[in-house]
């Protein structure tokens, strides 16, 4: 007797709404005997060539009206979705980027893991990685600052 896998349409709707909210266009979920592929179109074109969002300048400890030098300005790289932050690929021990490393805009500097899916965290500006703000393996929410980058002049 063949067992038919059951699919809960409510669960699929919930997952696709999470994908759309996280700007994830495609996911594949597999288990023995079943594979589900979800693609979110919702008027979206290909995001492969879309520009990265503009960097968010931030000066640590700066209050409006205070005088500090421009060299203390940093850009926070934030989580684009909820997930588990990974400083290194699960199959490797070495981190994707070291503190003090020069990075290019768009370079992968971390990962966000959602179940078995790993999404890249890209540098939003060229510069030097000043610090990692989240521990490897920590669960993060949307918008959580992950790295500080000192922009290249």
TrEMBL record:
It comes from the Bacteria. Residues 41-70 are annotated as: Disordered. Residues 80-149 form the Lipoyl-binding domain. It holds the Pfam family Biotin_lipoyl. This is Lipoyl-binding domain-containing protein. It comes from Trinickia terrae. The lineage of its organism: Bacteria, Pseudomonadati, Pseudomonadota, Betaproteobacteria, Burkholderiales.
């Amino acid at each position: 007797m063949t067992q038919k896998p059951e699919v809960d349409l409510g669960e699929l709707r919930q997952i696709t709404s999470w994908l759309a909210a996280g700007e994830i266009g495609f996911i594949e979920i597999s288990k023995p005997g079943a594979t589900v592929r979800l693609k979110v179109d919702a008027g979206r074109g290909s995001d492969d060539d879309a520009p990265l969002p503009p960097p968010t300048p931030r000066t640590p400890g700066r209050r409006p009206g205070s005088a500090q030098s421009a060299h203390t300005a940093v850009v926070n790289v934030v989580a684009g979705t909820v997930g588990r932050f990974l400083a290194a690929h699960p199959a490797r021990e070495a981190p994707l980027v070291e503190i003090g490393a020069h990075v290019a805009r768009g370079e992968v500097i971390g990962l966000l893991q959602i179940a078995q899916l790993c999404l890249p965290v890209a540098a939003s500006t060229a510069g030097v990685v000043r610090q990692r703000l989240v521990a490897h393996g920590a669960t993060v929410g949307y918008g959580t600052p992950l790295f500080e980058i000192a922009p290249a002049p």
